[in-house]
From TrEMBL:
Keywords: Coiled coil. Residues 161-195 form a coiled coil. One of its GO terms (cellular component) is plasma membrane. The keyword Cell inner membrane does not apply. This is HlyD family efflux transporter periplasmic adaptor subunit. Residues 125-186 form the Multidrug resistance protein MdtA-like alpha-helical hairpin domain. InterPro entries: MdtA-like_HH. Signal peptide: none annotated. The lineage of its organism: Bacteria, Pseudomonadati, Pseudomonadota, Gammaproteobacteria, Pseudomonadales. It comes from Ectopseudomonas toyotomiensis. SUPFAM superfamilies: HlyD-like secretion proteins.
Length: 363
């Protein structure tokens, strides 16, 4: 009997630490329940997400060798700043050739214009000859008419009439030849004008080639399309890339937002421009203001067939809360993408923000 009591007391001592621990756990749970933070109410919604920003790939338009990269990872860049240069030796040689062809085409255009002037002068000369031959023909006709009258009266011999007829026919032939010269001059003018058009077309084509090659050379200096930060370098100087080959990746620090998800019953109440407060895990002491800039029109995490109410509750819509660019411009050095946090969205415009969500930004 004594041994049984001793064993019972020993077992009780062994259970005592577990009972104490269980009691403490119950007390802690009760204390947490009493001190738990109150919900935001029906006028608010919340969701966890990550800070994101628009990314821009800087790529070469033409295939070629990378001559140099002017920036490093983490550098801040301004719009129009040169980020990298491609080798342009071949393009510059092609540009010199195109410029020579342009000068040749311009000289051909000048020559064609001179030919037009020459043919026009020849036409004027031929027209003057036509007038001269016409006058000679008129005189030959009158002489022939007088000779014919006098021959009928036996005042002149037949030989004189025959000679005047020969002169008349000769004058008619000379006039026809002169008119043919005018037609030939007109054809020469048309040919010269056609050559001038061809020369002008050749000049425009050569000038377009020069402009195209100059644009290609300018595009070989890769410039920042917008302000941002270099996130990473894809290639190194000396590498040969194909058309569209990526060199750098930029993060646009003027377009920073948090993406989070809301269920259908809350997403349906979200309006563009609604006020949002962001709390970043890495800096929970700050509350950053933002506004809704996008609400997805198609749900995600949705089953193919939605029939029951329980299935509709699974609908989640993506929402983007964009941070004010002016605020971002004051704290560019602190902007980081990929940082998780919470987004608190005010669904009811008349609802008052809780004190712990009052705006507080870095100074």
């Amino acid at each position: 009997m004594g041994r049984y009591r001793e064993a019972e007391m020993t077992n009780a001592k062994r259970r005592l630490p577990y009972l104490i621990a269980a009691s403490l756990a119950l007390l802690a749970a009760a204390a947490w329940w009493q001190l738990r933070p109150a919900g935001l109410g029906e006028g608010f919604a919340s969701g966890n997400g990550r800070i994101e920003a628009t990314e821009v790939d800087v790529a070469t338009k033409l295939a070629g060798r990378v001559a140099s990269i002017e920036v490093d990872e983490g550098d801040f860049v301004e719009p129009g700043q040169i980020l990298a240069r491609m080798d342009t030796q071949v393009l510059e040689a092609q540009l010199a050739q195109a410029r020579a062809q342009l000068r040749q085409a311009e000289n051909g255009q000048i020559t064609a214009a001179s030919q037009i002037s020459l043919r026009q002068s020849e036409k004027l000369a031929a027209e003057a000859v036509v007038h001269q031959r016409q006058a000679e023909l008129d005189a030959a006709r009158k002489r022939h008419a007088r000779s014919a009258t006098l021959v009928k009266r036996n005042a002149l011999p037949q030989q004189t009439l025959d000679d005047d007829l020969a002169r008349l026919q000769s004058a008619e032939a000379a006039l026809a030849a002169a008119r043919a010269q005018v037609s030939s001059a007109e054809a020469g003018i048309a040919a010269a004008q056609s050559q001038a058009i061809e020369a002008q077309s050749a000049t425009e084509a050569a000038r377009a080639s020069v402009e195209r090659l100059q644009v290609d050379i300018d595009d070989s200096q890769l410039k920042a399309p917008r302000a941002g930060r270099v996130q990473y370098r894809v290639t190194q100087p000396g590498e040969v890339l194909g058309a569209g080959g990526k060199l750098l990746n930029l993060v646009d620090l003027t377009d920073v937002y948090m993406t989070f998800f809301l269920p259908e019953r809350q997403a349906g109440r979200v309006a563009l421009g609604s006020e949002v407060r962001l709390v970043i895990d890495a800096a929970p002491q700050y509350v950053i203001p933002a506004k809704v800039s996008y609400v997805a029109s198609v749900a995600q995490f949705t089953p193919k067939t939605v029939e029951t109410a329980s299935e509709r509750e699974k609908l989640m819509f993506r929402v983007k809360a964009r941070i004010d660019p002016e605020l971002l411009s004051k704290h560019l050095q602190q902007v980081k993408t990929g940082v998780p946090g919470m987004a608190y969205l005010r669904l009811d415009p008349d609802a008052e923000w809780p004190t712990h969500l009052a705006i507080k930004v870095p100074q």
